[in-house]
UniProtKB/TrEMBL annotation:
Transmembrane segments: none annotated. The lineage of its organism: Bacteria, Bacillati, Actinomycetota, Actinomycetes, Pseudonocardiales. This is NACHT domain-containing protein. GO terms for molecular function: ATP binding. InterPro entries: LRR_dom_sf, NACHT_NTPase, P-loop_NTPase. It comes from Amycolatopsis vastitatis.
Amino acid sequence: MSSVLEGSMYTLVTDRDIEEKPPSDIHRDFLKKIEPEWEADDIGELARGYGRSALTLCCHALSAWVRIFPSERAPAAWTSLVNSTRLIDSCRSMLLAVRKAGVPGSIGAMRVVGTQRRDISSCLSHMELFGLPVEKRFRRVPIAVSYLAGKLSSQANLEHGRSIAINKLIISLANEQTRSKSNKGIRLIITGKAGCGKTTAVQWLAFTASQQGLQGLALPNRPLLPLFVRLRETIMSNRAPSDRMLLYSAQLQDEVASGWLQDCHASVTPLILLDGWDEISPSKRSGAEEWVGSLTERFPDAHIIATSRPEGINNTRFDLLQFKQVSILPLRRNDSAELAERWFNGLLDQHYASAELKHTEVERARRDLLSDLGTPAISDMADSPLLVSMLCCLYATGKTTAPDKRGKLYDLVVSTLLDTRERDRGSNSSDWNNLDLGKKETLVGAIAMEMTKLGAMTLPITGRKYSRVSSLTQIISDVLVKIGRSSAETPRWVETVLSRSIVLQRVANNEAEFAHRSIQDYLAAKSLRQSGQLGVIYDLADAGQWATLPFACYSADLETADKTINWILDRLSACLDSERRILLTTLVECLGASTVVSPKIRRQAEAAISEILPPADETESKALASLGNAAIPYLASSRVIDEQSRRLSINVLARIGTVEAMNELTNYARDARDSDLKALTTALERFDPEAYSKRVLAEINADFGITLTETNRISAISDIERLTRLTVQNARLDDGALNSARHIPRLRQLDIRDSENIGSIEWTASVRSLRSLSISRSSGLSPLKSVGPPELWALHLADVEIEITDWKEILQDKQDLRILSLKQITGQIAVLGAQDLRTLKNLTTLAVAGDLRIDSLDFVGSLTMLSRLVLERRISNQDLKMLSECANIRNLDISFEEHLKPISLTARFNRLQSLTVHSAPAVLLDAVPAMPNLTSLSIEDSNLGSDEFFSVGPEVKKLTLVRCTLENNYETLSHSSNTDRFPAVRELIWRDGHVADLRFLRDMPTLRSLEIEDNGSIQSLDGLEYLKAGCKVRIAGTRWGLDDEPVQKLRRRCEVVYEPEYDSESFTKNFWVDYGGS
C-alpha cells in the first residue's frame, strides 16, 4: 500500500484530468493496482478493510491538494506546497468534511450511500467564480461563503409574508408535512432567469446535506442522502433516465444494480436535486417527466427539488405531481455590493496564482465598482450574481465604466475574455492573439450556435463513434477554412480555443461547455442573427429557449427587430395561458434591447404589454421601465390599488425617469399611503433633486423620512415641510453639505451611519425642532463641545472616535433629555461625572459601554424617572446600594465584581421587570426568585451553580443564558430540592455555554419556545422528552455524532429545526426566493 501511495505523486504529475475526478474514482484506480498484491500476499479481509478506508482518506487528500497545485506539477512543487499554510488548511478542511460525510468502511447498500456522500462533499464543496482572471483551478471558492443572493418571501401559511432563507423554507415545508401527518416529502421547483443562482442554490443544498446539515429534512433514523444531478450532462445521451444517474461517480453508476436506491431507501432519506430542467431537449423531456413521476411514486417520502428557467417547465405536469414553485428574486443594491466584495476577496485570495494581478489595481477596481453600484443605473443592471460577476470581471481588467444595457455588458465581457485581456498581457505571438476579435467571435459563435440548435449544454471535443452530433473538432475545422486558415491546423486550434478563450472550457476529458448558459445564448443569438438564420431563433423560442430572443434584438437593424417583435405578437395570439406572462415579459425585454423599432410595431407591442401592468414582481418592474412613457397610463395612481402593486409601479415610474413619470409620481404623493412613502422617497435619487422635491415630495400630506447616501441632495430637500426624519449613511461628508439640514423646518430626527469625515456637528444646537440625534460607526468628528438644542430628547453615540473634554458643556442645558446612549466611544474622552448626570431630571434610559467611565453612581437617586440602566462597569456593593435607591428602574443591564458580599436584595428592585447580568455572583442568583415583578431574565458569562442550580420567580416568562456554565451534572445540582425552579418560563434561549445535557427542561413545564446555539458542549440530547407538544424548537451547533433519536421522537409532536455544527455566517448568507412564484 505504501508503494501505491508513493506512486500518487507520479499520478499528480502525469494525470491532467485528476482534478475532474471524484475521490471514489481515484480510489478505484488505486485499488486496481493494489488488490492483486493483497491477493498474492494473502492479506486478511479485516486488514483489507482498514487499507481501503485509509486509501479513501488519501484519495480525498489528493483530490483536495490537486486543486491548489500549479498547472505544471513538477516534483519540486511538493516541497513548497506541503509546507504552506494553504495546504495544511486544505487537509484540515478535507478531513473534517470526510468525517461529516461518513467514515469509509460500510458494506452492502450503505457502502454506496457512504461513497455518494463523500463524493458530493468533495466535489461540490467549492464553486467557480465567473471571470476570475486567474488559472481555472484557482477560481474555486468555498460554496458556503461564495456569494449571497436575494430574499425569499413566503406564503402566508408559512411565515406570513416575511423573508425566509431557502434552508428555512424547505425545513418549514418538511415540518408542514409532518404536522399534517403526510408521508410525502417536499416537491419543489426553484425558477429564475439565467445567472440568478439556481445551480449554486441546489449545489449548496447538496453539500450541506452531505455534511449532516438540513437535519430537519431527515426522517427518524434515516439520514439524508444527497443526490445531485446536472440534467444537461446526464439526459443528453440516448440512454433512458434511470436511478443510476443520481449517483455522482460515473464508475459507481456502472457498478451498482438498477434497484440500488430501493435497496438503500429503508436506511436513508433521499434528497434528489435536479438542476437545469429547462436544459433538457424537448424530445427527451417527456421521458424525464415520466422518470420524475416514477420517483415520486416509488419513493413518496423522498424530497425532490428541481431548478429551471420559468419557460422550461410544464406547469400542468408538475401540478399533478404536487410540486410547489418558488422563484429567485433579483439582487437588491446591498446584495450586489456584498457579492462584489466577495468576488474581489476571492480574487485577492488567489492573487498569488496570477503574476499579472497587482494588489493595488485590484483594490482600486473594487472601490470603483462599489461606488458605481451605488448609482441607480448600475444597481438596476446588476440584479443577478452572473451580471455582478461580469461587472467585477470588467472592472478587474481595467474597464471601469459600466455599460448602460445588458446586451452591451455581454459584448464587453465577451470581448474582454476573448481578446482584450490577452492583448493587455503583451504576449502577442500566440495563434490566439494573431486572430482579430471578429474571427474569435466567429469561432466560438459557431460552436455556441451548433450547441443551441442541438439543445445541448456540452459538446464532445472529438467525435464519438456512430454519433450524429457534431464535435468541437469538426466545427472548428469548418470555421478555420471560412476565416482563411488551414483545416490541417485543427488539433492545435482545438487546444488553443479551450485554453485561451476562457468563455469555452474543458469540463471532462472529452467534453466542453461555455462558462455560463447565458454566454452560450448570447453568442448563439448573435451568430444566428448575423448569418440570417432568424427562423432558427424562432424555432428555438418555440421549443422553450426564449432567452435567445432579446439577445437577437440587441444591436439588430430595424427589419430584424420588427420581425422578431412581430413574431412574438403572433405567438401571443395562439399561446397557452400558462405561457402568456413569460411571452409578454420576453416582449418587454426585446423592446428594451432593440435600438430601433418601427412606430407601428412598437404601438402594437405596448398595447399587448399593458396586460401585465402593473408589474407582479421586481423582475417585471425592471423590465417594464424600458417601455418609457408608454407604460405611464397603465401605472396611474387611480388604477393601482393594492400595496405591493403601488410600490412596484412607483419603482417603474422612477426608473422611467422622465418629466411625465414625475408628474404621475406627484399623483401618488398626493394620495400617498404609509406603504408608498419609502418607494416615493427612494425615487429622489433618480431625478433632479430640486425638481423632485418641489413637485413630488412637497405634495406628501404626512410626516415622512428620507435616507440619503449623497449629501449634496440635502439642500434640495431643506424646504419640505413634512420631512421630519433624515438618515445619512455610507457618505463622505467633507463637502460641508450636511449643514444644510439645519434649514429643514421640522426636522425631528437626524441619524448619521457608516459615514466618513463628518466634521463639526455643533450646528445641530441651533435646530430647535430636533428631538433625536444619533451618530454610529462613523469617523472624522470634530471635537465636541455642544450638540443638539435644549429640547433634545435622545442622544446616541456608538462606535465613533471623538474628542470630548467636558461633558458639562454638552449636557448642562439638556433638561428634556430622555435617552442617553454612549457606547464604544474612543478617543480623548473626559470622565462622565455624576454631577453632570444629576441635571438630567427627565432621563428614562442611560446606557454607557466601552472606554467611557462614570466616576460614581450616586446620581441615580436624583433621577426619579430613570427606568432603564445599562452599565458595562463592574458593580460593587456600594454601587448596588445606590442603584436600589432608584425606585423606578424597570430594566437593568449590569456586570458585577467577582467578590460581591452577600446583601439582602429581596426588598431592592421590587419593580424590576427585565434584568440582564454579566458575571452574576451566586448572591444575586439566590435573590432572583424574590423579585416579584421580574418577567425577563438574561444571564451572561456566569456560573449557574456548583452546589445547587439556581431558580427563578413565578413571573419570569423569558430566560436567556449566554456563555454560562454548569460545573456539575444537572441531576447532581438539583437533587437536594424539590422546588419548582422555572414554574412559568415560556421561552428559553441558550447560547454558547457549557452544559452536559438538557435534563433541566424537566423543570420547565410551561415552555413553548426553545432555542439552543451550542458550541459543542452538549454531550447528550436527553431531556428533550420533557417538552410539551406544540413547543417550537431550534437546536444548533451541537457536536457532530450525537445520538439524535430524542430529536426524531420530538418531531412527532413539535416543530423542530436541528442543525448540528451550525455555522451562523454561512446560513445567513443564503439563497432567497419568492415562495409561490411570479
